[in-house]
Amino acid sequence: MCTGRVDLSFIFHAFRKGADGVIIGGCWPGECHYVTEGNYDALGNLHLARKLLGLVGVDPERIRLEWIAASEGSRFAEVMSDFVSTVDGLGPLGLPGAEDLDRRLEAAERVIPFLKLVEREKLRVPERSEAAYNELFASEEVDRLFRDLVAEKLLTSQILALLRLGPRAAGEIAESLGLSPAEVSAGLGASSRQGLVTYDVERSCYALA
Amino acid sequence: MAACTPRTHEPLFRDTLREGGINQYFFDMANIREHCSWVHSKQAEEATQKAKDIVRMSVARTVGLEPLQEFDLPMTKVALVVGGGLAGMTCALSIANQGFEVHLLERDKELGGMARRLRTTLDGLDVQGFLRDLVRQVYRHPAVHVAHGATITDVSGYVGSFATTVRYEAGLKVIEHGVTVLATGADEHRPTEHLYGEHDRVMTQLELEARLADGDDGVAASSSLVMIQCVGCRTQERTYCARVCCSQAVKNALTLKQRSPDMNVYVLFRDMRTYGYREDAYRKAADRGVVFVRFEQGGEPQVEPQAGGDGLSVSVMDPILGARLLLEADHVVLSAAVVPSAGSQELARLFKVSSNPDGFFQEAHVKLRPVDFAADGVFLCGINHYPKHIPEALSQAHGAAGRAVSLLAQDTVTASGSVCEGREQACVSCGACITACAYGAISFHDTPVGKKAVVNPVLCKGDGLCCAKCPTDAIRLKHFTNEEVLDQIDAALAGP
Ligand SMILES: Cc1cc2nc3c(=O)[nH]c(=O)nc-3n(C[C@H](O)[C@H](O)[C@H](O)COP(=O)(O)OP(=O)(O)OC[C@H]3O[C@@H](n4cnc5c(N)ncnc54)[C@H](O)[C@@H]3O)c2cc1C
Questions:
Q1: In this complex, do B374 and A33 lie within 8 Å of one another by their Cβ atoms?
Q2: B224 Cα–ligand 1 center, Å
Q3: What is the value of pTM for the model shown?
Q4: Which of B172, B267, B332, B441 stands the most exposed, by the fewest C-beta atoms within 10 Å?
Q5: B302 and B229 in one domain?
Q6: What is the full DSSP assignment across B426-477?
Q7: Is residue A166 part of a domain?
C-alpha cells in the first residue's frame, strides 16, 4: 500500500470522527522504491482535500503531507512535533459554535466521488514533479473549477445534509449554513430541479423529496 | 499479535498459520516495538497508552480480514550481473557454477574495475594475478555471457521476468532475466585540496601504488614522504569514512619502508582504522619507523611548495605535543575518499532501488536482508554498497549469488494475495483506475452491461492508487480495504 492509496474519504472520515489534524507521510519524490511514484498522487489528493476543507470552513492547515524516508527518524519526530504545535495553535476542530461542523464535513464527504470524477475529467498535471502539482493547484483554472463545479455540488450536499434532520424554511437554511438568501435559493432551485428536494406549500418549508 | 518486530516475526507467524491450515491473511500484527516502545523508551506511561491505541486499531482491522489466495509467477532462470569488477565477476561465476545462465555487463572495454589499479593487499594477495585468473575463468565459462561497452537504457518487468535493454557498440539488445545483481563499484575521489593537480609531487594512494609497482625510482628515492588521510571524507560534504584508505596507506608505507628503510614516512591521520587483523600491519609499520601523527578536524595539514626546492612543506598541528610540526616532503600522498561510481543514480532509478544520502546503494535491511534491495529479485555486492576491502567484496559477491540462486532454483515465485479486485456492478467505466496503474494491471472488459474495469492479479502490485481514484469504490485493494482502514481510523479516534 502506497501513500497514493490514502483516499480523500479517509481524511474526511478522520475529521468527522474527531481528529483535529491529519498528517500523511510519504516517500520523497523521486525516491519511490517502485515504478508508481504514487507520492505525487498523494500530493494531488492533498491539494484537493485542502480546497474542499476550505470550502466547508475548516482551516486547510489541518491537513499536511510530508516527505519522510524510512531512515529519517529524527525528521519524522521534528515534523510530528511541528504539526502538533500547528494543530494546537488552531485549537480543537469541534469548538462550541461549530455544531454544524459535522454536517459540513458530511456534505464534503458526499462530494468526494464527484470530485474524483472532476479530477479525472478536468485536471491534467503536465508532469510528475512537485512544481507541476503545486502550480496546477494554485492556478486560476483549478479555482474556477472548484467555484463552478464543486462549490455548487457542495451547496446541494450541505442543504441535503441539513434537510435530512427535518424540513426547514429557506431562511432557516440560509442561517444554518451561514449563506445569503440568494445563494440558498440558487442551491434550492438546483436541488428541486434535480428532484432531490420538494417544497411543502402548507408549512412553507423545504424537505427531502 | 502485539509483540516483537513484524519484520522478522510476521513471516514466521504467517508460516505457522499456513502450517496449521489457517489462511495467513487472517493475521495482523500490531507494531508496538518500532512504532512505540523503541521510540518512546523514556515515556513509559504515554507509550503504554499509545501501545493500547495501536492494539485497538489492529483489532478493529482484524474484524474485516478475509482469506486470500496467492499467485505463482514463472521464473526465467537467467541472471543479469551489472558491473565486471572483482565483485561482479565473482558473483557471476558463482551463479554460473551453480548451473544458471548469467549475463555480465561491463560498461568499460575491459573487466576488472578498481582491481586493475591495485597491486597488493595487506593479506599479501597478488591482485593482478588473481584478477587475470578470474577474468580467464569468466571468459571460459560457457554459461557466463560477457558484454563490454554496455549501457543499460531501459528496464521493465519484475522478479522472475525482467526485460533489460542494453546498448552495445553493435546496437540494442533486450535481455530477459529472472534476477539482477548490481555490482557497479565505486571511484576514487579526485581531490581539490593540498595542491593536488597543481604540484607534480602530490598524488593519490592509487597513483602511488601504481608508481611503486611499475618501479618508479623517483618515489622510492625520496628521503621524506608525507601521507595525508581522510582527504575529501569525514567532512561536512561527505560525512562517511572511506574505510579502505587507512589500510591502503599502511600497505604502501610498508612497501616504501621495505624498499628504502631510511626514508622518513609520515602518516597524518585523524583516526587509524586498520580494522580486523590489519591492525597488525599498523603496528608493524610503526615498528619499522613510520611516524603516525594525529590531527583533528579543523587542524588539517597545510601543504605548500617548498621554498627554494622541488618538494613540499607540510605543517600540521599535533594535538598531543600541542605544537605545530613542520615536515619537509619530497612527495605528498593523499588518501582520497571513495565515492559512488558515476551513473549509479541513473541505474538506481531504472531498477527502482534505493541509495543512501551519500549515494551508495542501500540494502533492504542491514542485518536481515544484507544483500537484497527492497525491490524483489534485485541484489547488490561490492563497493557500490560502501567502501570495503577485496576479501569483504568477494564474500558479499558469494552472498548475493546465493540469494540470486535461491530464486533461480525455483520454478515460480509467489506473489502476494494483497492485490486489487474490480467490482463490476459499481464500475462506471470512467477509466481513472486504468490511468492510475503503472503496471498496466487494469483493463476494460466487455460485459453485457458495458465496459467494466478488470484487474489482472498477476500484474497488480497492491499499491492501491486505483482505489483512491475510483469515484464509486468499484475497485478494492484486498487486505487494505476501505472498510479495514476506516475501522482503524475509528478505533484510533475512539479513545480507550
Ligand atoms: C581508492 C580505492 C582504494 C582501494 N584500496 C584497496 C586496498 O588497498 N585493498 C583492498 O583490499 N581493497 C581496496 N579497495 C577496494 C577494492 O577495490 C574493491 O573491494 C574490489 O575491487 C571490488 O570492487 P567491485 O567489484 O565492487 O567494484 P569495481 O572494482 O569498482 O568494479 C565495478 C565495475 O562495474 C562497472 N560499472 C559501473 N557502472 C556500470 C554500469 N552502469 N553498467 C555496466 N558496468 C558498470 C565499472 O566499470 C567497473 O568495472 C580500494 C577501493 C578504492 C576505490
A1: yes
A2: 30
A3: 0.75
A4: B172
A5: yes
A6: G-----HHHHH-TT--EEEEEETTEEEEEE-TTT-----HHHHH-TT--EEE
A7: no
